[in-house]
Design brief:
The complex is a heterodimer of chains A (359) and B (288). With 359 residues, chain A is an alpha+beta fold. Chain A folds into 2 domains: 224 residues, Rossmann fold (3-Layer(aba) Sandwich), CATH 3.40.50; 114 residues, Nucleic acid-binding proteins (OB fold (Dihydrolipoamide Acetyltransferase, E2P)). Chain A has 8 helices and 22 strands. In chain A, the strands form 5 sheets. Chain A has a 6-stranded mixed sheet with strand order 6-7-8-3-9-10, sandwiched between helices. The longest helix of chain A is centred in the middle third of the chain and has 18 residues. Chain A is elongated and about 80 Å long. By secondary structure, chain B is an all-alpha fold. Chain B has one domain: MetI-like fold, CATH 1.10.3720.10. A two-stranded antiparallel sheet of chain B has the order 1-2. Chain B is globular, with a radius of gyration of 24 Å. The model of chain B has no long low-confidence stretch (mean pLDDT 90). Classes of the chains: A alpha+beta (359), B mainly alpha (288). Chains A and B meet through helix 2 of A and helix 10 and helix 11 of B.
């Protein structure tokens, strides 16, 4: 992607708090009309990154560009970048309509009263808050508050909207609905969304493209399915929360771990040797069976019913918990005896292997 | 739980308020009723009888001394209210909003309270060596050659009463405002910035309205204390400034109970009106 089509670009941005680097030479850009989700554990610097782009924080070094213009030293209120806060940050003493109209009534760019009223009503209708205009923001539900926060930002017609864990304060049911609505609204408005989240399912579900951030550095960027099937490092595999990770040694085309030595056809280059196998790629067989692939002896502990699948937890001899997911569409789950030993097996070509020997 | 048990519980709980009611009845309602009653008694030079009369009330409103004291009280109250707000609000803004560390803002608030570690009278009287003709302020200004003659208006005038009261009561304005400002979610201010509002707009449209309950509580504190004041005016005005409080002290001192009661009733009514007016500005119920 070139600078011309990028809506924003940050270039080698570093930001430290009391000697701790929250952002370490981060370079990132996003195109026009793109949904970018930024995945990272808490403390990975993802909120700091948003705050630097929004102008609430000044980077120690590096530049921030927006629509081809260097905005590193431009104050937040002159940037024209939308920001949706995790706790919504609605103005508690104003009504829904006054909240939405705030930016037009008091912003840097004057908007006529007639335009303000028109645009306010249009965006309120769009986010589905018709009839709520004169309610106070403490008289509406969490989902409606989320919509007010979104409407308040979108009415300013920003080219870039930053969303800081926008669904974090909602319950699971609402979160699912708001995901679809966020995508739909974004497509209708044709703006770029940069959505920060700590939830791997949210990141994979929402983004056209996912950026994984860890300890202030971007460790992978790609399409959701690409990241899911080809995590670039053991850390990414760990954040995706879909893989059992085994430490061991990769040497001469085979990996030696708790499950013995397994041949490896394809390894990804990484600073440490890790063998990753997806939760739903494991099969459970009795100890007496003699599986053809690699096998790991483990004790069954408990299971967790997830609606469309069942997650079974096993413990290996060295105390590591291994998760095995069974999709219910593949048939009724087998029942296992607690504290009984089983063999976990998988097909070696479905494993993802990281190591210093990798390519 | 059935309705009956809820009612029983409610009844049980209502006993909790009994000591408060007894206390307030004995020491507030009865005395106020008594003051109202006594204000209609007949006062002669050395005696007072319970024969009802409007004489004391007529005397109050016919005398320039008494009505003058009423207007002086109102005037000084308004001026002190204004000065404590003008000095107190920026202080509160700094302590409550701009100081990011909670520890530091607590320390600053404690510093504001330090003068209260000494007695009220000492705090008031300490202004005399400051403001006097040969007081600290005049000496410093003369040493700096800013003035050649000492400023005499500083002490034993209305100005000295205003200076003294503003200093003493300012902290009651700072405290509640700083508390309300401290409760404002910083994200709200950032959201307003993000929507393109500059500091002035954010202050007038977001910060000030949200701090208004603090302003009202502070104003009520200051008003109640200033309206009932007599010590500061007694000590710093050289008896030139007579507030309603001073009138009451003098009348009680000369055993003029009826006139003291009239003044007391008027003062209570003024305070009631002032508090009611402030409570109309904001709905404190929502804030607590």
């Amino acid at each position: 992607m070139t600078t011309q089509t990028a809506i924003f670009r940050i270039d080698g941005v570093t930001k430290s708090y009391g000697g701790v680097k929250a952002l370490d030479a981060v370079t990132l850009e996003a195109g026009v009309n793109e949904y970018l989700s930024l995945l990272g554990p808490s403390g990975s610097g993802k909120t700091t990154l948003l705050r630097v782009i929004a102008g609430f924080e000044v980077p120690d070094s590096g530049r921030v560009f927006f629509q081809g213009r260097d905005i590193t030293n431009l104050p937040a209120h002159e940037r024209g970048i939308g920001f949706v806060f995790q706790n919504f940050a609605l103005f508690p003493h104003l009504t829904v309509r006054q909240n939405v109209a705030f930016g037009m009534a008091h912003g840097a760019v004057p908007v006529s009263a007639q335009d303000t009223a028109q645009r306010t009503q249009a965006v309120i209708d769009m986010v589905g808050l018709k009839g709520m205009e004169d309610r106070g923001v403490d008289q509406i539900s969490g989902g409606q508050r989320q919509r007010v926060a979104l409407a308040r930002t979108l009415v300013m017609q920003p080219k870039l909207v930053l969303l800081d864990e926008p669904l974090g304060a909602l319950d699971a049911n609402l979160r699912g609905r708001m995901r679809n609505e966020l995508r739909a609204i974004r497509e209708r408005m044709g703006v770029t969304f940069l959505h920060v989240t700590g939830s791997e399912t949210e990141a994979l579900a929402m983004g056209d493209s996912v950026v994984v951030l860890d300890r202030g550095r971007i460790i992978q960027r790609g399409a959701p399915d690409d990241i899911y099937s080809h995590p670039a490092s053991p850390d990414v595999a760990h954040f995706l929360n879909r893989f059992n990770l085994f430490d061991g040694t990769l040497a001469g085309g085979s990996f030696t771990g708790a499950f013995g030595t397994v041949g490896v056809t394809n390894a990804t280059r990484a600073p440490r040797d890790v063998y990753a196998i997806r939760y739903d790629r494991l099969r459970v067989v009795p100890v007496s069976a003699a599986p053809t692939g690699p096998a790991l002896k483990a004790t069954y502990i408990a299971n967790e019913y997830l609606g469309s699948s069942v997650m079974n937890f096993f413990e290996t001899a060295d105390g590591k918990v291994v998760e095995v997911e069974h999709h219910l569409s593949l048939g009724a789950p087998e029942t296992y005896e607690p504290r009984q030993d089983y063999l976990l097996t998988w097909s070696p070509d479905q494993a993802i292997v990281f190591g210093r020997e990798g390519k | 739980m059935s309705d009956a048990s809820v009612a029983a519980k409610g009844q049980g709980a209502s006993w909790l308020i009994l000591p408060g009611i007894v206390w307030m009845a004995l020491f507030m309602v009865v005395p106020i009723a008594m003051i109202c009653y006594v204000s209609f008694w007949t006062q002669t030079t050395f005696n007072i009888s319970s024969t009802p009369t409007l004489a004391s009330w007529k005397q109050f409103f016919a005398s320039d001394t008494y009505t003058g004291a009423l207007w002086t009280t109102v005037r000084i109250w308004l001026i002190v209210l204004a000065t404590t707000f003008i000095i107190g609000y920026p202080t509160a803004l700094f302590v409550g909003l701009f100081v990011k560390s909670k520890t530091l803002s607590t320390v600053l608030l404690v510093i504001c309270v330090i003068p209260f570690w000494t007695s009220f009278l000492i705090r008031v009287l300490a202004w005399r060596p400051m403001l006097g003709k040969e007081g600290a302020i005049n000496i410093i200004l003369m040493k700096l050659h800013i003035i050649s003659q000492p400023i005499e208006v500083l002490l034993f005038t209305e100005l000295s009463v205003i200076i003294g009261m503003s200093q003493i009561y300012c902290v009651f304005m700072v405290g509640p405002i700083a508390f309300m400002l401290g409760r404002i979610d910083r994200n709200i201010i950032e959201a307003a910035r993000d929507l393109g509002a500059g500091f002035g707009r954010i202050f007038w449209k977001i910060i000030f309205p949200l701090s208004l309950p603090g302003v009202v509580v502070g104003a009520i504190f200051v008003s109640v204390m200033v309206l009932g004041e007599f010590a500061t005016s007694g000590a710093l005005s050289g008896r030139k400034v007579n507030l309603l409080g001073n009138i009451i002290v003098t009348q009680v001192g000369s055993l003029k109970w009826a006139m003291a009661s009239v003044t007391g009733v008027i003062l209570t009514v003024v305070m009631g009106l002032v508090i009611a007016a402030f409570l109309r500005i904001v709905d404190l119920k929502q804030e607590l």
